[in-house]
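EI: anyone free to look at a 240-residue chain?
SC: sure, send it
EI:
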Amino acid sequence: MLHGKTAIVTGGSGDLGSAMARHLAENGAQVISWDIVPPKQDSLADYVKVDVRDRAAVDAAIAGLPQVDIVCANAGIVDAQPFLELSAENWQNHLDINLTGCFHTCQSAARRMVADGAQGRIILTSSWVAQIPWPEISAYTVSKAGVNMLVKQMARELAGHGIRVNAVAPGIVAAGLAGRQLREEPQYAARVSTVIPLGAPGSPEDIAAAVVYLASPQTDYMTGSILTLDGGCSLFQFDG
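SC: here you go
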């Protein structure tokens, strides 16, 4: 389905990113994984050390590729702090990686696609909490709200070039950033136990399958959309 396509996955060494890279490769794409740490295990993707906060490094990595067809702007962090204790450094780190990192990656890739005349796909990783406040992660939720508007802004401006821009918005996944919170933050795990109508966290494979869908010809008429995969979290689960 994606044979002959070159795909970039940022944050490709994490649980979500590695699943995205694997699923894209299994569907025929040549995949380049960007991260600041090497993958934990053998991967179907080629690993390149790129820090998405470094615009020069992003531009150089894009320029070094023979073509760019699919970009998954997935690199992100979450570091929980209650709002009254939220440090300026924590706030800035979330914006730098989760939002500005997406901007650097997407603008650089879009410029390359336009220069090459490629009708590419840009897929960002948002979150179900981009629209719903969740305790102790103000910096994260605000950064992901920014990602949602970045998706819509790019989709509007790049449509004339044939470039489709969409996002996946995972819910609570038992891996990656949420997986770490489930293991390390008892108060987070306690909340999670009551908020998922389908009864269990999602998996990286659930999200990766949606990324392949957004990268495929099946979504030729889709741009500016946020595809939510949250087990119903955003429907609000009430007692009783």
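EI: The longest helix spans residues 88-116.
SC: 👍
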